[in-house]
Amino acid sequence: MLIAFAWWSVLLYQKNRDAYQAKVELLAMGMAAEGKYHSDDHFYHSQSYLELTKKYQRQEWMIFGEASVFIISLVIGIWLINRGYNKEIEIADQRRNFLLSITHELKSPIASIRLVLETFLKRKLKPEQIEKLGNNAINDSERLNELVNNLLLAAKLEAAYRPHLEPLQLDELTEDLVEKMDEKFPKVQIEHNIQKGIPLINGDKMGLVSVITNLIENAIKYNSSTSPSIKVTLKEMKDSINLTFTDNGIGISEKEKKKIFQRFYRVGNEDTRTTKGTGLGLYIVDQIVRGHQGKIKVLDNRPQGTIFNITFPKNKLI
Ligand code: ADP
Asked: Which range in 105-109, 172-176, 186-190, 265-269 is most confidently predicted, on average pLDDT?
């Protein structure tokens, strides 16, 4: 279509020039018949010739302008259609990935709890075996519970999330959660640098718990280092309260950084991925931080890993 438009413009331009030349010849003949044609120089300076030429030049600019508008509109149209099409494909891909991962995430703990119960019924077990299997089943049920909570929270966030604000001591809440995570993941080193005496803030406790646990769990999950190390920092600045999560994990490429906060988005492909997840964690984190008028940034850690930096403006929270 672009070529057709360009060709049409060239043809129109040529036809206009031909018409102009024909009109010039006709004018010259008319003037000669009336005895007004004395010389070429006199003809090219005559009022009629100058008006004709001016009109021709105006028409030339009009053709050029119209052709440009058509071609630019067409290019913008093609670009918009292409962008919409690519977005649709991306959304369909994410939905497919989400369905695959959610099916797996729901089925595997259910299957393992069932196996434990069947083993209890069929076999006589020693007390230490019962304890081990029982603990496995509890961990699986916790995983299921977390998943269902994340799904419910994501659904709630979609239908206009309003944080349930209450006075909170963010330093105590953060330290508490870091300690819980430290117990849950004994192989990972979780350091913290939490400033004491941070002013009381108005925050949604359940939401902020979800932010902190999601970011620590991700820092552990996306870490293939032989000595995984995570650092949580909470600091009061002049106008804000800053909460930072630093890890030495696999890192996130620049391209992916723009997408990871989208609902259902997971880096890579479900068929090849080995980590568990639904792509809801960072979506929830981002929505809750926004609900507190805060901002979240993702940066590279050196030499490797990721930094998630959350800034809560003091004038909105205190
Ligand atoms: P999920 O963990 O369920 O896949 P999230 O929304 O929590 O979903 O994360 C989205 C994607 O961002 C993950 O699939 C992962 O690839 C990437 N990601 C999140 N946190 C980190 C991190 N700390 N280091 C590296 N990659 C991360």
From this structure: 172-176
What is the arithmetic mean of pLDDT over 232-242? 96
Please calculate the CA angle 145-206-250 and round it to the nearest 5 degrees.
70
Query: Residue 64, Cβ neighbours under 10 Å: how many?
Result: 13
- Asked whether residue 10 falls in the same domain as residue 107, the answer is yes
The per-residue pLDDT for 83 is 96
- Whether the CB-CB separation of 219 and 247 falls below 8 Å is answered with yes
Residues having CB closer than 6 A to ligand 1 are: 218-219, 222, 247, 249-252, 260, 265-267, 277-283, 306
For residue 219, is it within any domain?
A: yes
CA pair distance 170, 30, nearest whole angstrom: 94
Q: Is 153 contained in some domain?
A: no
Ligand 1 center from residue 252 Cα (angstroms): 8
The pTM score is 0.74
From the CA atom positions of the chain, what is the Rg in Å?
35
Of 36-40, 59-63, 256-260, where does mean pLDDT reach its minimum? 36-40
- Number of compact structural domains in the chain: 2
The domain boundary residue, chosen from 123, 152, 178: 123
What pLDDT does residue 271 have?
Answer: 64
Atom 23 of ligand 1, residue of closest alpha carbon? 219
Work out which ligand 1 atom sits closest to the CA atom of 247.
Answer: 23
Most ligand 1 atoms within 8 A of CB, residue of 106, 157, 218 to mutate: 218
Task: Report the nearest-CA residue for atom 19 of ligand 1.
Answer: 218
